[in-house]
């Protein structure tokens, strides 16, 4: 059991794999467990989950700095990005970062658009000629940050900007409210069960989107049988029917995260990442994700019982709310083969 940021986490050992799966605080676990137990007792009803969906939507809006009415609720990032891909003219030019997470790139490629990969540092300078720029704010593979200010300044007035905030929301204070779409999955840094995702959309993009995946939830309780088509008049018309238990967890996790001091969270996570970087002789960085390209790094971490990931030929570690200096030092000891110096 660990106490951090006013809550507790049932973490044993050293867990540095939040970029793959986040560790929920105890209240999130308890809420989901209680909902499962109520389901088992036949005490649930569909309408009973509506407030959880609404609470998670409100908090996502707060986290990205966009209106609640602009937020669509879904289950996975790729399905939400597919709505954008489907709204574009044929063979639109979509600029993405090299080695971008495929939930961002595949929907555009599958829709037949021209998807052009460039180094993430080159995105701003090449953005003006694109119909769409689609990029992760923080790269999944190595934690690299896109220069949001430079990108915002560089895009032309007709260029749509789609930001995947999956690897940044929950630890990185960043202004993403100017983008046309800000999409994120909840099961990593937002510490929610898998099956909850959201996309906030600008007015100009919302006017172009077709609710091609619309079911009854996109219209509400008055739209469960028969025609004509009747959908919500805000971004809820793009909703997918929710994965209820995932939304129950998100309704606890997201309001709590939105209420934390974002600067303090950032300094905690990046400070621990830089503690590890310093011990390994790496320059300081601005990311909570550390990519270690050393022979056998992932294997040494695993042998020490430290849970991390292997991505793109490197060991990938992520530091979040439950992590401590002891975690960073344990990773350093495993990676360097010696005791971490006290700092």
TrEMBL record:
Instruction: Give UniProt keywords alphabetically.
Output: Lyase
Family annotation (InterPro entries):
Aminotrans_V_dom (IPR000192), PyrdxlP-dep_Trfase (IPR015424), PyrdxlP-dep_Trfase_major (IPR015421), PyrdxlP-dep_Trfase_small (IPR015422)
**Where does the record locate the signal sequence feature?**
none
A single MF term (Gene Ontology):
lyase activity
- Boundaries of each Aminotransferase class V domain copy? 50-281
Is the keyword Lyase assigned to this protein? yes
Q: What is this protein called?
A: Selenocysteine lyase/cysteine desulfurase
What is the organism field in this record? Actinomycetospora cinnamomea
């Amino acid at each position: 059991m660990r106490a951090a940021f006013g809550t507790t986490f049932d973490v044993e050992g050293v867990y540095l794999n939040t970029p793959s799966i986040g560790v929920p605080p105890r209240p999130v676990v308890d809420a989901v467990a209680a909902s499962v137990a109520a389901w088992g007792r036949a005490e649930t009803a569909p309408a009973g989950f509506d407030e959880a969906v609404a609470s998670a939507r409100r908090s996502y809006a707060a986290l990205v700095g966009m209106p609640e009415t602009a937020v669509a609720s879904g289950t996975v990032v790729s399905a939400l990005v597919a709505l954008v891909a489907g709204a574009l003219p044929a063979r639109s030019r979509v600029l993405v970062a090299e080695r971008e997470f495929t939930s961002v790139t595949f929907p555009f490629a599958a829709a037949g658009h021209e998807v052009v990969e460039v180094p993430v540092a080159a995105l701003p300078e090449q953005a003006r000629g694109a119909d769409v720029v689609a990029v992760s704010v923080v790269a999944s593979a190595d934690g690299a940050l896109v220069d949001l200010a430079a990108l915002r300044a560089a895009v032309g007035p007709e260029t749509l900007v789609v930001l995947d905030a999956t690897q940044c929301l929950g630890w990185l204070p960043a202004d993403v409210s100017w983008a046309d779409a800000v999409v994120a999955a909840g099961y990593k840094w937002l510490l929610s069960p898998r099956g909850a995702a959201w996309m906030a959309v600008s007015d100009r993009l919302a006017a172009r989107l077709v609710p091609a995946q619309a079911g009854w939830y996109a219209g509400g309780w008055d739209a469960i049988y028969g025609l004509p088509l009747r959908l919500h008049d805000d971004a809820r018309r793009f909703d997918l029917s929710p994965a209820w238990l995932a939304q129950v967890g998100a309704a606890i996790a997201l309001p709590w995260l939105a209420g934390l001091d974002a600067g303090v969270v950032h300094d905690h996570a990046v400070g621990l990442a830089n503690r590890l970087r310093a011990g390994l002789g790496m320059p300081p960085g601005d990311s909570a994700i550390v990519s270690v390209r050393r022979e056998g790094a992932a294997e040494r971490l695993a042998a020490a019982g430290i849970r991390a990931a292997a991505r793109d030929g490197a060991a990938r570690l992520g530091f979040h709310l439950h992590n401590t200096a002891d975690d960073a030092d344990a990773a350093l000891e495993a990676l360097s083969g010696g005791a971490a110096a006290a700092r």
